[in-house]
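Morning F.,

Quick status update on the modeling queue. The single chain you submitted on Monday has been processed. Sequence for confirmation:
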Amino acid sequence: MQKRITWRVAGKRRLDEPRRPATVAPHYDPEAFGRVSEGIARYFGTARYLVIQTVLVVAWIATNVLWATGSWDPYPFILLNLVFSTQAAYAAPLILLAQNRQAERDRREFELDRQVTAEMRAETDFLARELAAARLALGRIEASLARSDQRPEEAGASS
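Structure tokens below.
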């Protein structure tokens, strides 16, 4: 019986296996991307963002209306519409991603709350059973004490 000898290069690749072609693919950290999208979504929901956007739009329109000769975006403001469309095209998926992440956190929190509630209910049921057992034992003790109190009187009445 021969034993197969395997050699490893830098602890990863075996020398007796063919090399896999090198793949060049972009890599991103989904968690970091999600955190960034939540930050953007959180910022889009602030009054500061609305004020800054309003100031920029008013400045854009005022610049293009007052400087009619040098305006880069004349009256229908098509470039401004393009900027808003591009912003909306990126904002909507980022906001949805942030909402999905929040829904996932809420689901995990709900699941944890459900487990804690189940444990508390089991503990409460256990304590209720223990209390019922203690009451039964106390009732038996009271009954035996009542019987023992009656016996000396009966013994004294018969003599």
